[in-house]
Design brief:
heterodimer, A: 380 residues, alpha+beta, Rossmann fold, 2 domains, six-stranded mixed sheet, five-stranded antiparallel sheet, 20 strands, elongated, disordered N terminus, B: 594 residues, mainly alpha, MetI-like fold, 3 domains, 75% helix, globular
Amino acid sequence: MIQTQTWRDPAREAAPSGKTARGADIIGARISLRDVVKRYGAFVAADRISLDVEPGEFITLLGPSGSGKTTLLNLLAGFQGIDGGEILVDGKPITPVPTHKRGFGMVFQSYALFPNMTVAQNVAFPMRMAGVDRATSDRRVGETLEMMRLSEHAHKTPSEMSGGQQQRVAIARAIVMRPRVVLMDEPLSALDRRLRESIQIELRELHQAIGSTILFVTHDQSEALTMSDRIAVMDKGHIIQVARPLEIYRHPQSRFVAGFVGESNLIEAEVLERREDVAVLRSRSGHVFQTGCRNVPATGKVTVLVRPERMALHQSPQPGTTPATVTSALFLGETLRIEAVIEGGETLLIRCPDTAARELPETGSVIHVGWGAQDCWVLS
Amino acid sequence: MTATPLSAPAAPARRAWITSPALLLVPAILFLSVIYVLPLIDLARVSVAADPWWTHIARVFSVPLYWESLVRTMKIALTVACLCAVLGYPTALLIQRSRGTVQALIATAVVLPYFIAILIRTYAWMVLLGRNGPLNKTAIWLGIYDEPLALLFNRGTVLLGMTAVLMPLMVLTIYSSLSRLDQNLIRAALAGGAGPMAVFWRVLLPLTLPGVGAGFLLVFVSALGFFITPTLLGGPGDQMFAMHITQQADSITGEGFLQALAVVLLLITLAVVGIAGRMMGFEFIWGGGKLAAPVQTAVPEQRGTMAPPRRSVAMMLADTLGWPILRLMGRLPANTGAWAVRIIGAIVLSALILPILVVIVISFSEASYLTFPPPGWSLQWYEKFFSDSNWMTAFWNSLTIAALSSLIAVVLGGTAAVGIVRSEIKYKSALMLLLVSPMIVPPVVLGLSLYSLFLHLNLVGTYFGLAAAHAIGGIPIVVVIIAASLQAVDRRLEQGAAVHGASPLTVFRTVTLPAIAPGLAAAVFFAFLHSFDELVLSLFLSSPRMKTLPLMLWADINYQLNPVLAVVSTLEVVLVVGGILLARPVLGRSRGAH
């Protein structure tokens, strides 16, 4: 039952070549944050944040509320002044440029569609402000509405549309100028789950089609994993880790990242032995298991992350398993979610696919849990 | 061993109609019918009791004195409303854009004058613009001219005074619609490349236009019936229509014509409010607070049919007129707009606050006449006020009447508010309109209509009579404040208490009452203040033996301007500031609930 997976090199597989995967030109700007500081009184919302965003990249700022992700977006948009450091767009400092001259697109959680204008007028707004001539503006608005499948709604007012449609209008307005940078502030969190998932895919494809750099803010980890080229996990005004979604999920650099992105079993263990390519550890409950050698010191204690879906569940003892008592077992549809406690040790969370061969274990029954060396990730 | 249930099953609902909240509306409606609606009907009856019936009304429109005065009144009211809108919008923007202490200070500078009697604020302008007033003194000191100018008693002072007196109404109405805007709309416009001017022209102004319209109408309608300010600040050529009614009442002309004057003023007011109400909904009278289901469902339908043509016309105007101007404005330095807002806002705020400050300073003057700055300081005028038995009697009369009046207004208005918010009856909006309509009826008309009723009932010059008359205007205040507080109460809390066995009365006592207590306190205070400041009704309904404080002030202002008046004004400011400090949290909440 132990899944084996090879993980690819976390470094970027290919440098941007000037084309997106869909063949569109990359028009996005390179954004560089250098030691950016923002304070609200004594509270430091952004504490010397540095980050480089590649042209045409889809980067997500992920973190709990109050972590500073929206602050960072507001600083980029120019809604607030910066208290230290600098922000460069294509190498030029952007701080002296007022919001309306930055030429970014932006999507808000509350949609922020102008209720006194029709859909077409809303989408045309940035073009009119830029002084684009009527014919060009009409053509581009038409194209963009078609792209967002909104053509038939062009003459409606926002209040006549559903939340999902309104958000698509807001996205259309943000991209109609083909801006170098599009900022998105939790744009999907007001929508219901099903709609959210379909717009996630739509946004991802849109990004490929227009080639802008997109900065996306969310507190929803699954949204971040689905959509981003890279994720910057934030906490308390710091960026904790920046990496590709797979890397963030499989190799989080801290307990915070491990806990915030996905579910996790964090097992405290003592290093018994470290060999060439494998290390032997013993958990608090006395279970002895193997891991890869990365991040493992010669002696001492380590924290090991094993994702619930990497846990293997057996009815009877197997080599490398440990017995555990089921404290809760839930059927969630495509998966089973089981909590079990190892005697004298840790509580484990196990997720396994629903198969014909497996019954939901009874609460109080004993199961046998194991995991392979490849399923462990030692936190540094 | 069967367990007995802890509570007996509820009694059958045969007496349901007795417990219906709609019954709570009955006392207030009865009271207003007798003391407010019937006298107005009687007024109309007397005005047409001639042969042929239109004799008196025709005279109003054919005698040049009245006809010209009517036109003049319209012009003045329109000018004042325009001035208030143009100057009030930047002031409202200034409040909305400032933060923290600055915002609180600016808001107080607007709210404070709103609650000070019109009489006192007009008096303050008389002091400020007087021969020896600060304005003349400053101009001479600066060498602009050598001899003090006669700044008072002309059309300009009337416009200035009325604009200043009505400005808070406009600013607060516009601010409430500005503060309800989603701030992200402005951000979205900025992110879309709109400069500050374009944001104002394309987003801010179109979206707050209903608020501006509501403020404009409230100011216009109030100005139509204005009496105190034009009387005190105007010259012989600035007679407004309401002034004729009081003058005619003094020199008892033929029965009927006087009433016809009042009916014409009332009909014009009602026509303006009626047309405006059809167009934008009658909610503008009480500040845009939505009522309940019937009103809410009616509004979108109306929007669906009315909005698109109006919007496209507005859009066309904005495009043809606005864009060239906008392009030109774009060439101005980046902060022009922000500075214009600050400068206009500062001028408006100083026009609201300076007169009051000057009056406070003058009340400590040593001089026996009005001069600024005072040659020396003393408390002699305070001594004079507190030792003069006439002033003290008037003061106690006013306190007693105001206490009685606020009691009537809160009991009747409070129950009516519960009835309005909690009942499910038809014609709810019509009833609400009746309850708040005294706000828009010119006080002069109301005073005249009550006079004959009070003569019949022997109520002229009695405590109860004046208190009841003042309560007509107090009830709308109470209804609006308490209805807003009630709507903010979470129904689920009440349902929660009821599910767990609380009777309706217990629910009200333990859940509802504590939640609306701050609103109730504010309602009591403002109803009290309304009566304490009331002048026009009292002019009609008091007797020489029964003087209230505003009546004493009125007599003294017309006779001689002395610093005792400044003492009374200062005491009123202290009263209002005290009240606002107590009611501050409530005010913030009820304004947010709009």
